[in-house]
Amino acid sequence: MADKKNILITGGAGFIGSHVVRLFVRKYPQYRVLNLDSLTYAGNLENLHDVEHEPNYKFIKGNILDLELLNSIFSEYPVQGVIHLAAESHVDRSIHNPDEFAMTNIIGTIRLLKAAHSAWHGKMNGKMFYHISTDEVYGSINDGYFTEETPIDPRSPYSASKASSDHFVQAFGNSYGLPTLISRCSNNYGPYQFPEKLIPLMINNMVHSKPLPVYGKGENVRDWLFVEDHASAIDAIFHKGKAGEVFNIGGNNEWKNIDLIKLLCTIVDQKLGREEGTAMKLITYVTDRPGHDLRYAIDASKVISETGWRPETDFAQGLEKTVSWYLSNQDWLSHVTSGEYLKYYDKMYVNR
Ligand code: NAD
Ligand code: DAU
């Protein structure tokens, strides 16, 4: 496989990363896809069971904080492109434990940048370091939309760590000439999302007739995008984006949390053959997330006009697919919700 182009994807055992790895392994047999993941509570190799035996896929268990390991990966293969998704990704956890977010999301990103820079120094041609970021770096917006020119204004420890990593990526571009790309996406949903995030948590709790914790009044607004559409946007940007560029990605699909939860209740009741209104009775208003951002809304016109990407899954179809997937993958759910995760969830939920 000496002639293959080596693409290093970090965080490929997580939710979005597993969809990106699957897309790249299947669509680009001419690439060798290296998946570097330390398998935290959020990383699960079961997410990739359908591509793990493909000849152009290789898993490397390791931490992005381990510079020696990173240097050895860059020299052994050698790596020509990086798509960096590894991160601590849950806002609630970041409020309880900001240090871990700073370590992985900031220091881990710097180590990866250093490894790319030292391997590519003097031969940057054809290389690309693509950093996957979030719309949360822009803060919260009451009216209008975030564009790529909106000033960075992170408000949670999670978004502060992501904003900082964005700045380091741009600093490596500016100071060392590293070819970089950044994209900032809105809320993703779909199969393989860890059930601490809103949609899978609600589905799982409905199945088990547990309370559905709505933070505050449920009036916060998020823009939802099906995860496979995010993966295809990443593909388009990686192949068509010009070094130094930033792209926003979104679904133009805003929902108030409470309306989305009620819609999910209806879908789950129907699919489980339960009486209408059964799940709705589980809705429980709980203490709000501290510093809870009111609204995120993305203007994705740049990625659409410059790369030709557009979202293909409409929300009704995507939610239907997602609920069906969770209902028929109860084994996956019980694997990821055992042990440490449950202890953490109970602690968080009791504290509210
Ligand atoms: P996730 O939490 O599901 O997965 C993160 C993955 O990173 C896991 O597999 C984990 O094991 C791995 N990881 C964590 N720390 C690591 C370390 N130190 N070394 C190596 N691997 C490590 O996250 P996700 O929701 O798939 O998000 C992926 C990326 O996309 C993140 O950078 C996140 O900020 C960004 N993002 C997420 C969303 C969303 O809605 N989920 C939206 C926009 C951007
Ligand atoms: O916008 C992109 C971001 O979306 C990503 O960068 C993050 O990695 C990802 O986790 C997500 O962040 P959010 O905080 O928006 O997602 P979460 O699923 O945690 O919450 C969605 C909304 O639902 C938010 O307003 C909080 C609310 N919520 C969440 C949970 C878990 C509840 O009301 N109850 C809950 O139990």
Assign an overall shape.
globular
CATH architecture of the largest domain: 3-Layer(aba) Sandwich
Query: N- to C-terminal separation?
Result: 53 Å
Q: Work out the helicity level.
A: 40-55%
Q: What Rg, in angstroms, do the CA atoms define?
A: 20 Å
* Annotated CATH topology of the largest domain: Rossmann fold
Multimeric state of these chains?
single chain
Unreliable runs, pLDDT <50, ≥5 residues? none
Could you give a short account of the major beta sheet? 7 strands, parallel
Q: Determine and state the CATH class of the largest domain.
A: Alpha Beta
The fraction of residues in strands falls at: 15-25%
Task: Determine the number of helices (DSSP H or I, runs of at least 4 residues).
Answer: 12
H and E order? EHEEHEHHEHEEHEEHEEHEHHHH
Unique bound compounds: nicotinamide-adenine-dinucleotide, 2'deoxy-thymidine-5'-diphospho-alpha-D-glucose
- The CATH superfamily title of the largest domain: NAD(P)-binding Rossmann-like Domain
- Secondary structure tally: strands: 12
Mean pLDDT: 95
Structural class: alpha/beta
How many domain regions? Answer: 2
Which strand order spans the largest sheet, edge to edge or round the barrel?
Answer: 3-2-1-4-5-6-10
What features would you describe in this structure?
The chain has about 350 residues and is of the alpha/beta class. It folds into 2 domains: about 5-190 and about 225-250, Rossmann fold (3-Layer(aba) Sandwich); about 200-220 and about 255-290 and about 315-345, UDP-galactose 4-epimerase, domain 1, CATH 3.90.25.10. Helices cover about 45% and strands about 15% of the residues. The chain has 12 helices and 12 strands. It has helices at about 15-25, 65-75, 90-95, 100-120, 155-175, 200-205, 225-240, 255-270, 300-305, 315-325, 330-335, 340-350, and strands at about 5-10, 30-35, 55-60, 80-85, 130-135, 180-185, 185-190, 210-215, 220-225, 245-250, 255, 285. It has a 7-stranded parallel beta sheet, sandwiched between helices. α5 links the parallel β5 (about 130-135) and β6 (about 180-185). α6 packs across α10 and α8 (about 255-270) packs across α10 (about 315-325). The longest helix is centred in the N-terminal third of the chain and has 23 residues, at about 100-120. The mean pLDDT is about 95. Bound molecules: nicotinamide-adenine-dinucleotide and 2'deoxy-thymidine-5'-diphospho-alpha-D-glucose. 2'deoxy-thymidine-5'-diphospho-alpha-D-glucose binds next to α6 and β8.
